[in-house]
Amino acid sequence: MNAPRRRALLAVPALLALASCDIPTTGVVEAGAPASGVRPITPVYFLHDDALVAVPRTTAWPGDAGDAVRLLLRGPTPGEAGKRLTTAIRERRATPASPVPTAPEPGGQPVPSDPQGQPPTGEPTDPQGQPPTGEPTDLPRAAADGEPTDLQGQPPTDEPVADVRGDRITLRLPLGTGPLSRIATRQVICTAAAAHRVTAPSAAPVTVEVTDGSGWRVGGTDQGCPSL
Predict the structure, then answer these.
(1) What's the whole-number average pLDDT of the chain?
(2) Residue 168 sits in which domain range?
(3) How many domains, in total, are found in the chain?
(4) Residue 189 maps to a domain
(5) Residue 179 falls within a domain, yes or no?
(6) Can you tell me the distance from the alpha carbon of 222 to that of 203, in angstroms, rounded to the nearest whole number?
(7) What is the DSSP string of 5-67?
(8) Which of 174, 185, 184 is nearest to 140 (CA)?
(9) 151 phi, psi to nearest 5 deg
(10) pTM here?
């Protein structure tokens, strides 16, 4: 028996042994792509004993501040409420298309009503119906300067919409959501900024301006927002 034939016969048992161990003999086999469909966690901010806490949620559009705030406006889930999580964001109020006039005064002039359908009292009130506390809001410079955004001139929507420019977010809430208390505003700002950081991490603070299209607006940064 010549040498080439002897080597071929000796190779047969080795190939059979590899096949019996389920080891492929055709070279490297690709294992396939990694698992997909896992959505990143987005923090949504609720309250526990009047303190901000970050609650892990998943959104349909990771990194979309508007989508994260939409979850926030829905409030805690039953399971979260069972853990004493609450929200300071009240239910959206009705917004009539135009003021409803009331009965005229003795002089014959009608008394205009406010958006809630009540006659004016002569004293401004905060969202809870109490006189203002005089506490200043941390409105960012862009809002004070009237910097235009893509949201200006657009009709109000029933869902939160965000316009993002770098680390600055202009967030329009559904008409009738604001004005918000300070802690409710922090819920919105922290939630919007945290969603933005999911896909755009940055060492700089994220600035968020919040409005509901009614002329009310307030702003601040995510400095001090608790993490998960």
Answers:
(1) 73
(2) 39-87+157-227
(3) 1
(4) yes
(5) yes
(6) 11
(7) HHHHHHHHHHHHHHHHTT--SSS-----PPP--PPPPEEEEEEETTEEEEEEE--SSTT-HHH
(8) 185
(9) -85, -20
(10) 0.63
